[in-house]
Amino acid sequence: MAAKLRTVAVAALFTAAAAKASLREICTPSFVRAALPARSIVPGITIDASSVETTLVANASFSSNSYPSATLGYCNVTFAYSHDNVPGDLVHVTYWLPSACQFQNRYVSTGGGGLAINSGNSAIPSGVIAGAVSGITDGGFGSFNTMWNKVFLQQEGVINWQATRMFGYQAHHELATLGKQFARNIYNVTDNKKVYSYYQGCSEGGREGWSQVQRFANQFDGAAIGAPAFRYGQQQVNHLVGNVVEQTMRYFPPSCELEKIAKLTIAACDGLDGRADGIVSRSDLCKLHFNINTTIGAPYSCEASSGAFPFPFPGGLPDGPPDGPLPRSRIRRQFPPQNPTPAQSGTVTAEGVAVVSAFLNGLLDSQGRRAYISWQHGIIFDDAKTAYNADTNKWGLSINGLGGEWAARFLQLKNTSSLASLGGVTYDTLKEWMVLGMNRYGDTLQTTYPNLTEFRSAGGKVLQFHGEQDNSIPTAASVRYYESVRTTMYPGQAFNQSVAALDEFYRLFLVPGAGHCGSNSAQPGSPWPQTTLQTVIDWVEKGNAPETLSAKGAIDTICRWPLRPMWSARGTVLNCEYHQASLDSWVYELDAYDVPVY
Ligand SMILES: *[C@@H]1O[C@H](CO)[C@@H](O)[C@H](O)[C@H]1NC(C)=O
Ligand SMILES: *[C@@H]1O[C@H](CO)[C@@H](O)[C@H](O)[C@H]1NC(C)=O
Ligand SMILES: *[C@@H]1O[C@H](CO)[C@@H](O)[C@H](O)[C@H]1NC(C)=O
Ligand SMILES: *[C@@H]1O[C@H](CO)[C@@H](O)[C@H](O)[C@H]1NC(C)=O
Ligand SMILES: *[C@@H]1O[C@H](CO)[C@@H](O)[C@H](O)[C@H]1NC(C)=O
Ligand SMILES: *[C@@H]1O[C@H](CO)[C@@H](O)[C@H](O)[C@H]1NC(C)=O
Ligand SMILES: *[C@@H]1O[C@H](CO)[C@@H](O)[C@H](O)[C@H]1NC(C)=O
Ligand SMILES: [Ca+2]
C-alpha cells in the first residue's frame, strides 16, 4: 500500500516537473500579463498591463567583480506602473527571469551608483545567476538611464519630493514588493512555500539596501551591502573637504606630488600587516605609526599626460567599466575628463604634506570641533585632486563633481550640475552644509536609522563590506554605523558581548587594500569579495554564518570586524587579531553637532 502511494506521488511530481513552462513559453507578454501582481500588493499603484515587454535572451555570458561568471538564458521583462495620486507618474521596472528549472524560489533586488538608482545590466545578472528573479527600477525618473538629478527640481528653488522619496527608499520598496509576488505568480509557488528575498548593491546601491533594511523589516531575508553612501548629508559634502583644505591653506599640490605621497605611504605601511605584498591591510596601523612628514623632500617626476577620463571615477558605480551600463556620454557629462598635465618633477613639499595631513585628518570646524570622519591612510587622494592651468602654468582648484553638484543643486536648489566657485567657502560652511543636508534629507537620504530590532526579529541577515582603502566613501563611515547600531541596540553591554549579539544578524568586513566597490589599482592584487550574494544566501537558507569572507585577489580571506588581519610566519599565515589601539583609531567623536549623528 505504502509502496503504491509512493509511486503515485513520484508520478505526480514527475508530471508537475514536466508541466513546467519553458523559458520561451514564459517569455511572452501574455504569459507575463497573467502573472502580474494583484493591485492590492502595493496600495496606491496601478500596473499598466499593456506596457509589458519581454525579450528572451538565450545565452548570455556574465562576468563581474561582484558575482561569479556564468552563461545562462533569461527572460527580460519590463513593465510600468503609476502612483494613483501623482499626475503624469510612470515608473518602469525590469525583472530578469531564470528558466523554471533554474529558479530556486528566490527574488533579488539590485541597486545603483552615484546618482543612478540602477546599474543597468551590470548588477542585475547577479540574481539570475543565483536562481532568482532579479529586478531593477527606474525610480519613475523617465527612463532606466535617467538619473535622479535630472528630475530633482520642479523649478529652481522647488524640490521634487516625489522623485526624492522614490530615490531615497520608496522605489526599491515597490520594486521588491512587486518582484516577490511576480516571482511567485510566474513559477506557481504555492502559498505554503517561501520565496526568499535578497538585496545586493554597492555605494549608492549600498545606501539603497540599508534604506530598505532600516524601514521594511520583512522585505529582505538577506542583504549584501558594499560601501554604502549613507550618512548622506555628510557624505556628499565630504567630497569637498580636499578642495577647501587646499583653498584654505592656499596650496594646490601638483598631481605628481600627491601620487608620490600616496606611493611612499603605501610603501612605508605595506609591511605593518606582517607581509610585504604591496597591500596595506592595516590602514589603522599606518595611521598610528607612519609619520607622513617623512615624505618631505622626496623627489618625484611624472611624464606629461593628455588628460585622462577619470576612471575609476569618484562616487562610483558598482561595476563601472567605462563602456558598461551607463552611456559614456552621460558619465562624461557628470565627470568631465581631467585637465591635461605637463611633465612634472620636483620634491615633496612641506605645504603638500600639510594639505594631505589636514585632508586625512578630516573636517574640523573653525573651533576645532570634529564635523566628519575621514579616509584611511594609504588611499590615493582622489578627492584632493587639483587642476593644471596651461595658460598660467599653475596648479589650482578642481572642484569635486559629486560634492559640487550636491552643494549647487541639492542644497542651493540651482539647476546646475556644478558649483561655479568655492569663493568664501570655509570649513564652517562645509559643516553648515552637512547640517542642512542631514536636516533636509533626514527622512529620505540620510539612511542611518540605527535600530534594527525589527529586522533582526524577522530573521534578516546583513553582510556589509567596505574597501579599507576606499577613497570616495570613507571606510570608517561603515564602522560608525556598525557602532551606532551596536550602542543603540545593546546599550550598557560590554563590547564583546554586544558584538556577539550583532554577529547573529549583522556582520561587517573591511576588505584589505580595496578601493571603492572594487580592488584598487594603486595596490595591485588587492582583493574584492565576488560571491557576497551567495554568502548571504547560505547564511539565510542554511544557517552558515560567515566567519570570514572569501574574496578574489592576492588575499582570499577577509577578517570579520572588529578583528583585524595580521600575517605571521613570514607572511604565510593570516590571523584575525583583536587590537584595541587599532579599533580606537576608527572611532570619531563628532562634537561639532548638537544632535546625534549615527
Ligand atoms: C503555472 O501554472 C499555470 C496553470 O497551470 C501553467 O499554465 C504555467 O505554465 C505554470 N507556470 C510554470 C512556470 O510552469
Ligand atoms: C550558447 O553559447 C555557446 C558558446 O558561445 C554555444 O556553443 C551554444 O551553441 C550557445 N547556445 C545557444 C542556445 O545559443
Ligand atoms: C530589457 O528589455 C528592454 C526592452 O523591452 C530593453 O530596453 C532593456 O534594455 C532591457 N533591459 C536590460 C537590463 O537588459
Ligand atoms: C534645467 O536645465 C536644463 C538644461 O540645462 C533644462 O533642460 C531643464 O529643463 C531645467 N530644469 C528646470 C527644472 O529648470
Ligand atoms: C609634521 O610637521 C608639521 C609641520 O612642521 C608639524 O606641525 C607636525 O607636528 C608634524 N607631524 C608629526 C607627526 O611629526
Ligand atoms: C528599537 O525598536 C524596538 C522595536 O520597534 C523597540 O521596542 C525599542 O524600544 C527600540 N529601541 C530604541 C533604543 O529605540
Ligand atoms: C574581546 O574578545 C577578543 C577576541 O575576539 C579578546 O581578545 C579580548 O580580550 C576580549 N575583550 C574582553 C574585554 O574580554
Ligand atoms: Ca602588506
Automatic annotation (TrEMBL):
<keyword id="KW-1015">Disulfide bond</keyword>
<keyword id="KW-0732">Signal</keyword>
<keyword id="KW-0719">Serine esterase</keyword>
<keyword id="KW-0378">Hydrolase</keyword>
<feature type="signal peptide">
    <location>
        <begin position="1"/>
        <end position="21"/>
    </location>
</feature>
<protein>
    <recommendedName>
        <fullName>Carboxylic ester hydrolase</fullName>
        <ecNumber>3.1.1.-</ecNumber>
    </recommendedName>
</protein>
<comment type="similarity">
    <text>Belongs to the tannase family.</text>
</comment>
<dbReference type="InterPro" id="IPR011118">
    <property type="entry name" value="Tannase/feruloyl_esterase"/>
</dbReference>
<keyword id="KW-0106">Calcium</keyword>
<dbReference type="GO" id="GO:0046872">
    <property type="term" value="F:metal ion binding"/>
</dbReference>
<dbReference type="InterPro" id="IPR029058">
    <property type="entry name" value="AB_hydrolase_fold"/>
</dbReference>
<feature type="compositionally biased region" description="Pro residues">
    <location>
        <begin position="313"/>
        <end position="325"/>
    </location>
</feature>
<feature type="region of interest" description="Disordered">
    <location>
        <begin position="313"/>
        <end position="347"/>
    </location>
</feature>
<dbReference type="GO" id="GO:0030600">
    <property type="term" value="F:feruloyl esterase activity"/>
</dbReference>
<keyword id="KW-0479">Metal-binding</keyword>
<dbReference type="Pfam" id="PF07519">
    <property type="entry name" value="Tannase"/>
</dbReference>
